[in-house]
Specification:
The protein has 65 residues and is of the alpha+beta class. The chain is built from two helices and two strands, in the order αβαβ. The protein is elongated, with a radius of gyration of 13 Å.
Length: 65
């Protein structure tokens, strides 16, 4: 969570059962970093967290929860 680098596919594919990430925002609406800033700027009433599989994109993997 809040990692500041993009993993290469060699790292992403190391675990036998895939790599997961806990993202501090509702995907796909809030990708990348500093999510809370955008939630406040957009006057959102709720803040969410997404658990998703990691792929080669930035916060683009299939959502688990």
């Amino acid at each position: 969570m809040s990692f500041n680098q993009i993993f290469k596919s060699e790292i992403i594919n190391l675990p036998r059962l895939k790599t997961i990430n806990c993202h501090a925002g509702k995907l796909p609406f809030y990708r990348s970093r500093n999510i809370l800033n955008w939630v406040l700027i957009n006057d959102e009433k709720e803040f969410g967290i997404t658990v998703h599989y990691v792929d080669e994109g930035i916060d683009t993997g299939d959502i688990i929860l």
